[in-house]
């Protein structure tokens, strides 16, 4: 199986124009409101506003405005990768399941490239990861990736194993270039995904340990154990999912409120236009009545 289509995203220079010239690159949802893609595409378009179109709802273009206060881009400090933040997860979109293993020898037979070519979603392209170039710090694949596939997801089965970011321009070298998730994790991706698992605690035993530390007047030790205990609750999968869901729903509520305000403004403008139009129509009707009455008087027998 390839990556789920609903995890894929395309980036554009226009909110509405879907012509190939407006297409920028591909991306993959890796978390709630987090899209993994390539850094160079955004550096090339640093002076403009880009738009993300989730595959799950391609008509819902999401603006990515870059400013000193609202930069949506989280760049990798060294490699050509970036995370793009959007305010809310689109309806029906989902994050891809991540394959954290970077060992190319452990890849299964079903390795595919999943993304967009000139803005059109393509069928998954079968790939073979052939070697790791330590000097250039990327994996090489066969065949060469089509131009414009930057940011496309490389899947190991239905799990995201890496992203395409370049291909060799030499026509004699039919190779593509991939960064594995494993390369991006340390010190960067995991900090944004917050994917670490909660420690496993025996709650009653930990409570007894805290009581003993308090009895021994070890306030600092008791405080540390208590913070660990609280941290375990906060990182329980259910708590994490609930927090993510609340954040996403809050963002969607803000977007909905903005849309409602825009509709109200449009309604008020329409009503004002209708009132103005009716005033003009009433004035024209009154003038027409005067003209008709004047003509009627003139046509009556004996009229001067």
From TrEMBL:
<dbReference type="InterPro" id="IPR009003">
    <property type="entry name" value="Peptidase_S1_PA"/>
</dbReference>
<protein>
    <recommendedName>
        <fullName>Serine protease</fullName>
    </recommendedName>
</protein>
């Amino acid at each position: 199986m390839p990556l789920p289509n609903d995890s894929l995203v395309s980036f554009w220079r226009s909110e509405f124009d879907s012509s190939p010239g407006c297409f920028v690159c591909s991306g993959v949802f890796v978390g709630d409101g987090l899209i993994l893609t390539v850094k160079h595409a955004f550096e090339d378009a640093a002076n403009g506003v880009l738009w993300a179109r989730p595959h799950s709802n391609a008509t819902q273009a999401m603006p990515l405005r870059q400013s000193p206060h609202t930069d949506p881009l989280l760049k990798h400090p060294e490699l050509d990768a970036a995370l793009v933040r959007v305010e809310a997860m689109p309806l029906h979109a989902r994050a891809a399941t991540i394959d954290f293993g970077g060992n190319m020898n452990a890849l299964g037979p079903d390795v595919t490239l999943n993304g967009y070519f000139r803005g059109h979603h393509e069928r998954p392209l079968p790939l073979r990861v052939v070697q790791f170039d330590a000097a250039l710090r990327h994996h090489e694949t066969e065949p060469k990736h089509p131009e414009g596939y930057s940011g496309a997801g490389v899947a190991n089965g239905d799990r995201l194993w890496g992203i395409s970011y370049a291909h060799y321009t030499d026509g004699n070298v039919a190779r593509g270039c991939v960064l594995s998730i494993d390369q991006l994790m340390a010190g960067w991706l995991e900090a944004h995904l917050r994917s670490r698992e909660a420690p496993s605690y025996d709650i009653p035993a930990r409570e007894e340990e805290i009581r003993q530390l308090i009895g021994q007047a070890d306030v600092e030790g008791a405080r540390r154990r208590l913070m660990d205990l609280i941290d375990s609750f906060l990182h329980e999968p259910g708590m994490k999912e609930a927090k993510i869901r609340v954040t996403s729903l809050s963002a969607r509520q803000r977007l909905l409120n903005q849309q409602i305000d825009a509709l109200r403004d449009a309604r008020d403008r329409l009503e004002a236009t209708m009132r103005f139009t009716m005033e003009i129509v009433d004035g024209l009707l009154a003038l027409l009545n005067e003209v008709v009455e004047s003509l009627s008087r003139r046509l009556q027998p004996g009229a001067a």
